[in-house]
Amino acid sequence: MPDYQVWFNILVGVLGTIGGWWLNNVWISLKELQSADKELAEKVASIEVLVAGRYVTRDEFNSALSQIFSKLDRIIDAVNQKADR
């Protein structure tokens, strides 16, 4: 009958093999998650560029705002003329 040292060596070998297999699976999963994270970050960056592609310039904004105010002035004048009658 083998002594206890042999059984201990076999047990440590089996546990080491199982632990190594488990650590390898964790390592592979970690690498897959890192690559998926990198891909997702690239997609988000491309969406940011798409959304923030072109902002309205100050001149365009002022031009549109002056057109709105001129229309509002004409509406106010028309309402005032109706009220005067």
Number of helices: 2
What percentage of amino acids are in beta strands? under 5%
**Silhouette:** rod-shaped
Q: Using the CA coordinates, give the radius of gyration.
A: 37 Å
Instruction: Please give the number of β-strands.
Output: 0
Order of helices and strands: HH
Distance between the termini: 121 Å
Proportion in helices: over 70%
Average pLDDT rating:
89
How is this structure best described in words?
- The chain contains 2 helices and no strands.
- The protein has 85 residues and is mostly helical.
- The protein folds into 2 domains: 1-52; 55-85.
Key features?
85 residues; mainly alpha; 2 domains; 2 helices; rod-shaped
Chart the SSEs and their pairings.
Blueprint: H1 4-51, H2 58-84
Q: Briefly, what is this?
A:
The chain is mainly alpha-helical and 85 residues long. 88% of the residues lie in helices and 0% in strands. It is rod-shaped and about 120 Å long.
